[in-house]
Design brief:
Length: about 325
Amino acid sequence: MVKPEQWLRSTPRGLLCEPGGFTIDPLSPVDYAVVTHGHGDHARPGNAHVLATPGTIAIMQTRFGEAAGKALQPLAYGESLRIGDVTLCVAPAGHILGSAQAIIEYGGTRVVVSGDYKRRADPTCPPFEVVPCDLFITEATFGLPIFRHPSDRGEIRKLLSSIEIFPERTHLVGTYALGKTQRVLALLREVGWDKPIWLHGALLPLTELYIRMGCNFGELRSATEAAAAEMKGQVVLAPPSAIRDRWSRRMAEPIRAVASGWMAVRARVRQASAELPLVISDHADWDELTLTIRDVGAAQVWVTHGNEEALMHYATGLGIEAKALSLIGYEDEE
Ligand SMILES: [Zn+2]
Ligand SMILES: [Zn+2]
């Protein structure tokens, strides 16, 4: 068995798999990139060769056009590929459409790079799959015991209750363009909201992509040309940065909501000017992170992307060898 430290290295460009010659989620352009999912802190333009799931490739093409990569190689969930002496496979991460864990086998060792993930159900992507491994490299965006995300349906019902109380006011919800927007649309439909849902123009291209990939969100309308009166008592989704800007001022007495895992943090609620914070996260919370560490049964865990210390301490307590893998440049679109 070859120790992962000998062939998997944290470099300024990202996590490099030396025997495979590829970098996972590179921060700056490389010859060969393996991309776990389409968020801007993981998928960047300008790589020569990109390997990702078909969903992630479609997202990168929508976001970057030609700059998505010179050669785009799709790898579906469950398929495996031989690259030099390395076998690479991808499994669902349950984070957003196309999101994958990268499973790398080399020298008798199996390493799983989680990418971003969550364990709860999301109607817009297949659920996280537990892949037993020797080394698990986990994200830790919400890696503190204080983070325990509430039920997403419960949060979305808060929005409906507010509409009941203020039927004349427009409910303006800040949602990131990729993942959160489509999840909120799907959740609204799940809890029975059957009116048209209005979208800021910046949210349209990726939402249309989700629809092409099989999601159904009911009737959607563009908020761009709509009159304020039409959107009274309705739900309008917009990027979080737009809910306080000039664009929002024409809405009828808007109530401003923001849907994000960070809405569990009071300072972030203030910063986002959210009157109605909705804690809806596409990342695992503390219970999901610790459950996953137990589920995969790895002897080693490397923690990245957030609050490393507490999760390392937790893993050590289970007799797992844990270390922090400091990857700079990851700041989440959540
Ligand atoms: Zn992400
Ligand atoms: Zn991320």
